[in-house]
Design brief:
SH3 type barrels, 6 strands, mainly beta, six-stranded antiparallel β-sheet
Amino acid sequence: MPSPDRGSVWIVDLGLGPKCGPAWLSIPTDPQDRVLVTVVAHTTSLQRTRFEIAIPAPFLKAGAFDAQQVLTIPQVKLVRKLGDLRAGQLALVEGSVRRWLGF
């Protein structure tokens, strides 16, 4: 079973046929709660909304994390770790998710 960390970016099987894509992970801090993970999908098909956050990283194609694509999935859908977001990058994605959810 994969061992994800908060702020790590993984290839995730989102259940969209053969397509898998990168997603940023938000996971609970208690290891016993790690059956599910919540992800923010990364997309290269941009719509230019204020909820898309472009994060330059060597392990990602040009695109953005889309706070309108927040999903909770079983941890077994994690395919492969790509890398980790830095603290400042993580804060940008979290801020966009908070705006989308109205927090």
